[in-house]
Amino acid sequence: MLYAQDKWAVLLIFQAMDAAGKDGAIKHVMSGVNPQGCQVYSFKAPTSEDLDHDFLWRCMKCLPERGRIGIFNRSYYEETLVVRVHEELLKKQKLPPKLVTKDIWKERFHDIRAFERYLSRNGVLIRKFFLHVSKDEQKKRFMERIDNPEKNWKFSSADCRERGYWDEYQDAYEDMIRHTSTEDAPWYVVPADNKWFTRVVVAGAVIDGLASLDLHYPKVGAEELKLLAEAKKTLNGGK
């Protein structure tokens, strides 16, 4: 858990193409963190309840409490990525037709910047990671999932279908990063072909972010010290 009177919360957001190693990076980088103070949320396809609300709603429900680290494995940024590449998904979001214009992605970028600025002003440290895997390396990892029986469970035919939209996704990611990387909520574009390097870069950025919060253990006051002394005396049989 975080300290410094638990005034801060930390939000780490991970976005990437399939097989870029998000799960592994989260697992390895956060392996030394007390699980009581860390929460991981993975956002899949939105439910019917999600679609009855605005595009930020389902992620807002999962924001970390003060004193905790929240990790989003994918996030509201999907609403400027997969929904942009597959615009038929936008039709399922029940938006008033007059609001669905050619400027909708710019408007969502604007809303996200405002939302993250709001979080930052309310004590949430935000760090965002785009794990950039090359097309060749993605193919290699897909083939490994197919050829290795122990990794068959990781493979999804949907991943291959999405690979067919590689160029469209790259354009969407580039536009997203360019319009939503800010001083308070920066994007880290991390090369992901070498997993060890990816994890080192992510860990370094997280450590730097936490260091900026000037965290420290809670100070024990005179009254608490007195109680500690009494407890020690009781444990020693009253001596």
Compact description:
The protein is α/β, with parallel strands linked by helices and 239 residues long. The protein is built from 10 helices and 5 strands; from the N terminus they run βαβααβααβαααβαα.
Summarize the helices and strands and which ones pair or pack:
Elements: E1 9-16, H1 22-29, E2 38-42, H2 48-51, H3 57-60, E3 69-73, H4 82-85, H5 104-121, E4 124-132, H6 135-147, H7 157-163, H8 166-180, E5 187-191, H9 195-211, H10 222-235
Parallel strand pairs: 1-3, 1-4, 2-3, 4-5
Helix pairs in contact: 1-9
Could you describe the 3D structure shown?
The chain has one domain (9-235): P-loop containing nucleotide triphosphate hydrolases (Rossmann fold), CATH 3.40.50.300. The chain has helices spanning 22-29, 48-51, 57-60, 82-85, 104-121, 135-147, 157-163, 166-180, 195-211, 222-235, and strands spanning 9-16, 38-42, 69-73, 124-132, 187-191. The mean pLDDT is 93. The chain has 10 helices and 5 strands; from the N terminus they run βαβααβααβαααβαα. Helices cover 44% and strands 13% of the residues. The longest helix is centred in the middle third of the chain and has 18 residues, at 104-121. With 239 residues, the protein is an alpha/beta fold.
